Amino acid sequence: MDISVVGCGYVGTTLAACLAELGHSVTAVDIDESVIERLDAGQTPFVEPGLQPLVEAHVGDRLRPTTDMGAIGETAVSFLTVQTPAGEAGRIDIDPLTAACADVGTAVGREGDYHLVVVKSTVIPGMASETLGPVLEEASGRELGSGIGLAVNPEFQSQGSAVDDFMAPDKIVLGTAEDRAVGLLRALYEPLISRQDPTVVETGRREAAMIKYANNVFLAAKLSIINELGNIAKEHDVDSYQVAAAMGADDRISARFLRSGAGWGGSCFGKDTAALVGAAAEHGYDARLLKEVIATNDRQPERMVQLLERHGDIEGSRVAVLGAAFKPGTDDIRGTRARPVVATLLERAAVPVVYDPTTAGDRLAAEFDVQAAEAAETALAGADGALVVTAWEQFEQLDGAFERMRTPVVVDGRRVIQHREDIVYEGLTW
To answer: What separation in angstroms does the CA of 150 have from each of 76, 130, 185?
Structure first.
């Protein structure tokens, strides 16, 4: 099938490469020439396991990057993967998405075969039909549901495992009232459906949009709950990970997302939770529980610094911050818990030294004008404390590097450091 993907960020690039891997002919479109140049050269602009080999394998063949919006008109289905960044009070900014929708409508034109527009971008329920639909009709001169279709098909891919998540999905959500659109989407996903047998949910556009929010917000809430329980457990000298293991054995709860620690980050959980709170407020509903989900998460970095301060005044002290990416397997610093950790250390007049195995460390250090270390061992040398923020596997192998610290106090926000007799170990929630 001939497909176009509009927007070559994290979601769009992964989607385009994976669809090409499934055998489709994919045109990847973006207005940023530098992004397209990198893709055309077979390079991905970010770290994502398994993505680079797919881009290299298919670019120039089944994957064609371009800045030409007109190329969309030569395809049968176009996916909108433009970002919807958070604004004030959690309100998402859909102006870039609306502009992209208009570009698609113009490219499709008034005549030709039926064209299906699929919204992958995260939008508040109702925005697809009420905002994007009229834009699409006006730009294309076609009637929605007749010459042009509109569907909401949310993605459920986590950074660091996005390729695997796409290739082996738990569910595929098809949000549209149009039989023709459902048929096209089922045909498009048939290689996955026949091989992986995921749950296929056929629903309305509003419901599909809400499923995406509900999914992310529920997982964010689950993490905040286990963090709060972990904080309480620590005050009672209880190993919260043993508690969580027992909880996870209950099939009503399940074991996933029960690792207490420094909190969640990234581009989705915080933005989506805040957006849902804001959207509820516009309808007169006070989503107090979801507000506390955010507040609980925001307290975890402060708690890490407080645990370090239990062992002495940190003013003027060198403190190693191990990890800058919001999770291992990516170089993304959006929503990273390392940012408030560094900010809090600076408020306490400490001297943070940041290390991450990716360029995330350099970028975060530059943001705060602090030192970025070339290695974890370098960050630890002469330090009076260390805060482990990201669960990179290499941190599990540090061992003797802690001997280089002046005062070996380690606050582990991810439970990756082995207890040693020669360090003062503080687990964040145990």
So the answer is: 12, 11, 11
The answer to whether the beta carbons of residues 63 and 25 sit under 8 Å apart is no
| Cβ count near 359 (within 10 Å) | 15
- DSSP assignment, residue 263? -
Determine the Cα–Cα distance for residues 239 and 237; give it in Å rounded to an integer: 7
Catalytic positions are: 268
Amino acid at 361: G
CA distance 106 to 100: 10
* pLDDT tens digits along 29-45: 999 999 999 999 999 98
Amino acid identity at 381: A
User: Where do runs of H (alpha helix) occur along 141-268?
Assistant: 162-167, 179-196, 205-235, 240-248
Residues 171, 174, 180, 181: is their CA dihedral positive or negative? Answer: negative
Res. 199: pLDDT tops 90: yes
Cα–Cα distances in Å, from 113 out to 73, 177, 386? Answer: 10, 19, 61
**How far apart are alpha carbons 272 and 124 in whole angstroms?**
9
Question: Tell me, what's the pLDDT at 430?
Answer: 83
How many beta carbons lie within 10 A of that of residue 387, not counting itself?
30
Q: Are 333 and 360 in contact (CB under 8 A)?
A: yes
From CA 222, how far away is CA 210, in angstroms rounded? 18
Q: What is the pLDDT of residues 139-173, one digit of tens each?
A: 999 999 999 999 999 999 999 999 999 999 999 99
